[in-house]
Amino acid sequence: MINGYVRNGDLNAARKLFDQNTSSRNVVSWNSMITGYVKHDHMPHAQLLFDQMPVRDVVSCNTILSGLYKIKNPEGIYHSILQMGRIGLRPNEFTFSIVITAFLNTVFNVLIPQLHGLILCLALNSSVFVGSSLMRGYTDLRNCEGLHQVFDEILVKDVTSWNALILGYMDLGLTAKARRAFELTPEKNVVSWTTLVNGYITNKKLNEAWSLFNKMSERNVVSWTVMINGYVQNDKFVCALEVFLSMLRSGARPNHFTFSSVLEACAGCSSLLMGKQIHSNVLKFGMPLDVILSTSLVDMYAKCGDIEAAFSIFESIPKKNRVSWNSIIGGYARHGLATRALEEFERMMKCGVRPDEVTFVNVLSACSHGGLIEEGERHFNLMGTKYGIQAGIEHYTCMVDLYGRAGHLEKAEKLIKGMPFEPDVVVWGAFLAACGLYSSLELGEFAAEGVYKLESDHPAVYSMLSKIHGEKGVWGTVFELRKMMKERHAKKQKADAKPEHLQEYDPT
DNA sequence: CTAGGGTTAG
Q: Out of the domains of life, which is the source (predicted)?
């Protein structure tokens, strides 16, 4: 009865019934009520009921655990399973699949092999559910052997187990193994295909991804979005937009994931015309404008040159988060409106939103574009002392740029010599641009020497070196800098995603 | 009454 109301989403009716039947309450009615609160994101209420229960069973615990997972509280999960042990409740398949999934990408993932041991003791390793979550766990730990072994232990493998195997191999960078697993999958579904396509994309094999995508007999909104986003992440913005148009022609309905990616494509190729059309599509499709989608719109308008439209959408976001603020501050910085950028930063602080590294990159670059030296220095110092954010190489680059543009080449030089990083091509690029701007041959040589010492180089650096001797426009260098900054970011991501030693398994 | 696989923003 109570569960009927919970299923229909009528939490109040469920609670009413629950409160009335004090005498005939059983564990199931308590659990149903807790389920209702968890489903509707009322964790405190769920927790309260759980604490009030006269007798708790494993389902009560599992429900709380899934609630804690939903609000991303792995620490709470950890304490809850300890508590479970003290009460003497034996965890079941549900418990383990929830707990393992909740520990993914957290510091608690080191416990996953230990949970695996417990699972073996309780003879739960043959479960498909436990098995596939364990597979995600070993993937998270970058343990290929574990991944394979857990898969083998699953008694009756279903398509989800196979998909977890494909995904695991792809996450580990083993595209050939993933492909083999895909071929061996008995009943491939659209998820199997999409996992493979997305895996090729994250492993930078765009052509493989595209040819596979074209062979798909069935595509859903996720498959389309994966392909669109794949092109966006690889800077093939026009391709992304073309795929989106095919998607619309096919009659598939885009969702907020799709639109976020498509808007990023518009931003990437600075197409205000297309961006506006996508915006009207968002409205036409009746997409709920959540924070993420709205922020994508803000960013698109800012990058396509319509900063006022960006601002007006930004203002319309009821619950602006850190990314939204970063987006508008970055937008103002890009448009050279340093004062407005700083004003938004102050407003962000007033709203109690904590800044992060990106915030300060944007703030500092606003200062550098606006020639606000003291303000830039102030924020550069404040980011560590007041906000506890360590300055990264990107922030130093902004400061070098700031001093350089203002003609304070000695200050820039001093900063480079004193910074806790080896200067990279981007730093030298910023410095060189300044040397070019102020025709400083002497310091240009200092930079040239620095560049020479780097293992990696960049053609843009040479073009700037040559620029010191005259010619070319100033705007060219700004563009080159941006490009290098972006590439630095891409390289960092790539290094995190797949270590080289895993590459050798891949013959293609 | 509780659980596993594919997609979003700076």
A: Eukaryota
Residue pair A58/A26 in contact (Cβ under 8 Å)? The answer is no
Verify that A491 and A411 share a domain, yes or no. Answer: yes
Q: What is the pLDDT of residue A440?
A: 73
> A282: domain CATH number?
1.25.40
What positions of strand B are covered by protein, i.e. any atom < 7 Å from a CB? 1-10
What would the two tokens of residue A168 be? Answer: 């695991």
- The CA–C1' separation of A190 and B6, in angstroms, is 8
Cβ A126 to strand B below 7 Å:
no
> Which of A's residues 8-47 have CB atoms within 7 A of nucleic strand B?
27-28, 31-32, 35
Q: Is the pLDDT of residue A445 over 80?
A: no
Average pLDDT, chain A: 91
For A475, half-sphere exposure in the C-beta direction (CA atoms, 13 angstrom radius) is 1
Q: Which of residues 65-84 of A touch strand B (CB under 7 A)?
A: 66
CA A185 to C1' B2, whole Å: 29
The integer distance in angstroms from the CA atom of A451 to the C1' atom of B10 is: 30
Question: Number of structural domains, chain A?
Answer: 4
Distance, CA of A56 to CA of A64 (rounded, Å): 11
pLDDT tens sequence across A328-385: 999 999 999 999 999 999 999 999 999 999 999 999 999 999 999 999 999 999 999 9
| Neighbour count for residue A352 (Cβ, 10 Å) | 6
A35 falls within a domain:
no
SS3 sequence, A46-113? HHHHHHHCCCCCHHHHHHHHHHHHHCCCHHHHHHHHHHHHHHCCCCCHHHHHHHHHHHCCCHHHHHHH
Residue A469 confidence class, pLDDT cut points 50, 70, 90 = low
A289 and A353 housed in the same domain:
no
Give pLDDT, residue A436: 77
A68 CA to B2 C1' distance (Å): 13
Q: Among chain A residues 346 through 405, which have CB within 7 angstroms of nucleic chain B? A: 356, 358-359
Which position has the higher pLDDT, A438 or A395? A395
Shared domain check, A265 and A286? yes
A164: left (phi over 0), alpha (psi -120 to 50) or beta: alpha
Q: Is the pLDDT of residue A294 over 80?
A: yes
Asked if residue A385 and residue A329 are part of one domain, the reply reads yes
Q: A93-126: per-residue pLDDT in tens?
A: 999 999 999 999 999 999 999 999 999 999 999 9
